[in-house]
Each structure stands twice: as structure tokens, then as C-alpha cells.
Amino acid sequence: MGVDVSAHGADHLSGVVLQPLPQGPDPAAARAEALFISSLSGSSDPSRPEVEAAIKHAIRAHGGSRGCAGEVAAAYGDYPETAAPRMCWAQRVVTSVYHQQAP
């Protein structure tokens, strides 16, 4: 766990190992969130151009990746029984399309 030294000052951190603070959202996670809220069917096997178009549209329609994350959170709150399988699908598709290892 990282420590933000700006809030505490270096004098109080004797023996603490400092790690960098996160730099921003994980691109794979942001893509999966955008795909999650897209209109693509969770039972589909979309092509790379379909996935890229769906992600771009979702990000634009929801004001960026934070808007997409908010929609995902709302879906988990409203429909947890369908949200988990859809997120699994979105992560699989993103991993397949972008050739990234799943976490």
C-alpha cells in the first residue's frame, strides 16, 4: 500500500516503504466497463471492430471512463444476478481482442 507523503510530511515516515500512487485507471478494466454497458449482447462473439466501436460509443455516451464505471456500479446494485456474468463476458472479450492476460 502506498503512502501519500504530501499529507503527512516525510518526518513521520521513518521505516515506511513508499510506493508510487496509482497513475490512473487500468486500460483493460476501463474497456471492460465500457463494453459491459454497451448494447452488444453478452452472448455474442463480437469482432475487434465491433468491440472497438462499442467501447468508443459507450465512453462518449457516458462522459468518459468514470461515467462507464458509474453505470457498472449501478448495474451491480440494481441487477447483481446478471451483472456478474456480463462483466465476466466483457473481460473475456477485452482480453481476447486486446491479447492481454486476465488479472
Describe this structure in words.
This protein has helices at residues 5-8, 27-36, 48-61, 65-78, 80-98. By secondary structure, it is an all-alpha fold. The protein has one domain (25-98). Helix 2 crosses helix 3 (48-61), helix 2 (27-36) packs across helix 4 and helix 2 (27-36) packs across helix 5. The two termini are 18 Å apart. Mean pLDDT is 82; it is low at 1-13.
- What structural category do the secondary elements indicate? mainly alpha
Spatial separation of the terminal alpha carbons? 18 Å
Average pLDDT rating: 82
Unreliable segments of 5+ consecutive residues? 1-13
Descriptive keywords:
mainly alpha, 103 residues, single chain, 59% helix
Short description, anyone?
The protein has 103 residues and is mainly α.
Write the layout of secondary structure elements.
Blueprint: H1 5-8, H2 27-36, H3 48-61, H4 65-78, H5 80-98
Helix pairs in contact: 2-3, 2-4, 2-5, 4-5
